[in-house]
Design goal:
Elements lengths: L1 E3 L9 E7 L12 E5 H10 L2 H6 L4 H6 L1 H10 L14 H4 L2
Antiparallel strand pairs: 1-2, 2-3
Length: 96
């Protein structure tokens, strides 16, 4: 974990974690990764299951284009990078 810029929301300085664009269980162990702040990383996993991430949402651009993620990114960019952000599971995921 380092203090840098989140590849998804662009906030800086934040502590980042490595996110496998293709989940490890779907062969992404050696695949491309991005560095995300914890709130963005949690939000991705709250919105999408691993199958969705592996089959469609496996690029930063596709993640940013999802309507729920667009709304989240608009909001998170206004938040203090040092503020603790909580993430709730989306209603979309709860229905499955």
């Amino acid at each position: 974990m380092e203090s840098e810029t989140c590849d998804l929301c662009g906030r800086t300085p934040v502590k980042t974690t490595e996110h496998h664009l293709v989940p490890k269980q779907y062969g992404g162990v050696d695949g491309p990764t991005v560095m995300l702040c914890s709130p963005c990383h949690r939000q991705i996993h709250a919105l999408f299951d691993n199958h969705e991430l592996a089959t469609f949402y496996h690029t930063i651009e596709r993640l940013k284009d999802h309507p729920s993620m667009e709304k989240y990114l608009k909001w998170i960019k206004k938040q203090d990078p040092q503020k603790r952000i909580t993430t709730r599971k989306s209603n979309r995921r709860k229905r499955k």
